[in-house]
Hints:
Elements: H1 6-11, E1 19-20, E2 23-24, E3 26-27, H2 38-51, H3 61-80, E4 89-92, H4 95-110, E5 116-120, H5 129-138, E6 141-145, H6 155-161, E7 166-172, H7 184-193, E8 197-201, H8 213-216, E9 220-224, E10 235-239, H9 241-246, E11 257-261, E12 264-267, H10 281-295, H11 299-318, E13 323-325, E14 335-340, H12 345-354, E15 357-358, E16 360-362, H13 367-373, E17 378-382, H14 389-409, H15 424-433, H16 436-447, E18 472-480, E19 486-494, H17 497-510, H18 515-520, H19 523-529, H20 532-535, H21 538-556
Parallel strand pairs: 3-15, 5-6, 5-7, 7-8, 8-9
Antiparallel strand pairs: 1-2, 4-10, 9-10, 11-12, 13-14, 14-17, 16-17, 18-19
Helix pairs in contact: 2-10, 3-10, 4-5, 11-14, 16-17, 17-21
The structure holds 4'-deoxy-4'-aminopyridoxal-5'-phosphate.
4'-deoxy-4'-aminopyridoxal-5'-phosphate binds at residues 94-96, 124, 126-127, 172, 176, 201, 203-204, 224, 365.
Amino acid sequence: xxTLNLNQLRQAFPILQETANGHPLVYFxxxxxxxxxxxxxxxxxxxxxQHNANVHRASHFLSTQATEQFELxxxxxxxxxxxxxxxxxxxxxxxxxxxxxxxxSYGRSNLSPDDEILVSVMEHHANIVPWxxxxxxTGATLKVIPVTQDNQLDLSxxxxxxxxxxxxxxxxxxxxxxxxxxxxxxxxxxxxxxGATTLIDGAQxxxxxAIDVQDIDCDFxxxxxxxxxxxxxxxxxxxxxxxxxxxxxxQAGGEMIERVSFDGTTFNRLPFKFEAGTPNISxxxxxxxxxxxxxxxxxxxxxxxxxxxxxxxxxxxxxxxxLELVRQVQPTVSLLSFNISGYHASDIGMxxxxxxxxxxxxxxCTMPLMxxxxxxxxxxxxxxxxxxxxEVHHGFDCLEKILAAEKTTxxxxxxxxxxxxxxxxxxxxxxxxxxxxxxxxxxxxQLGKQLPAYPEHLRSEQHIVPGCDSTVWLSHTQSNxxxxxxxxxxxIDSNARIIKGLSVILxxxxxxxxxxxxxxxxxxxxxxxxxxxxxxxxxxxxGLHAINQRILAIAxxx
Length: 558
Ligand code: PMP
């Protein structure tokens, strides 16, 4: 049996020796982006230190070197996915840009009102929204393959949806939020039988298993460098040359032309026709290095190890009462998605972060799938080959401790009457008196218990604040005093404890004030004073700002 030398492997990733919030970093957010080995970092540095020049155009020493390295990376990608030609590899910013390119170039020039585009309910927004836009532009219809109870693509529904009208089948190779690996080869074969063009979103596949685009016979395959140990800002669109040759350019400018004149312009050959402007040269070279790194590993041992991590995680997860795993059936990539009843995933995610454990919470850019599952999000742990069994056990030990501590401090948030909202100055003072962010954070969580009861009849769609990871309701009343001045009273509720706590701060700050007073106030200063902007995660900060924006909009137009 082959094995990985994990100690040695981990040494190759400098960031894995770092700490987070004072604890050794445990990185379980690999589906969002992977860490980078020294080899990749060095390749980028070396390019800038020794070879930096623009590619293809200039005729000097450095430019020749840069061009050679840049084109070498293209052929490394070609071999990595077994494409027939290196000109079938188009550099893009990432999966998102690759899909937009296909939708706008291929889709826009080939689709018409009677045509159908088939995607699945488990797609990332990057493989939904570009198709919605091109459907709108061309009059084509978007159809959606549902998933079964096992969260796998419903292949019998696929058979029904697949007709001679289907012009494009665009599905993911592996799901980023639930891990399902789809039977793309079989589905492509079926799609070909009705003459459909096929696109595979490989963003979650490339880091986990070997890809052979000739074997699966897709027309397009897309992925991002940063999810396979390479740099951000570089990605790949693979397309069969017979498709790419017949597609119009998407973006225009330098490099993609053959000849420009005001009488007419002709376009460059592949792959340059689709690479307008100066490309991400260091990114491509870094991605080439990432491929060399992946190829230096024993791929069977890698898959075995990742499967083992997932199996351990599932076992530990199943031992936690009230933990609700999103159902998975093999094959899947190495991740698991779950919720713990009584808690919002983002609260648990933040508490794990305080222990140095990085996980992802939210809808993972798969809102339609979350709606189908009846969830507003999950907590996702996604593993890579550099994670260890000890890390998985440590992650779940911490999770168990967090839940035990929550039980003793109490997780219920019995509402109290509105009059008991704390005075904002006293509240600020007591929060500032907390020793360190950790205890201030706990105080904010506890504060959620003082959130006044939210009016049940206003718990409706129109009162939901968009832009928050959790569900947040906000409503208001206004009172006219004898002097005819209006004052506003807001009510907020959320299914995330941290948002309940933050809402107490907002309500204490705003309630009872006049609209003009609200508009001229600056709550951001308070956020800064309390360290919220610095310490809350970006998604929490976005949520807080979305609530604040809604309050300001109401004050603007009470
Ligand atoms: N598709 C899938 C399945 C993904 O997981 C992601 C990234 N989460 C994307 C597309 C978009 O990738 P990028 O942001 O790198 O363009």
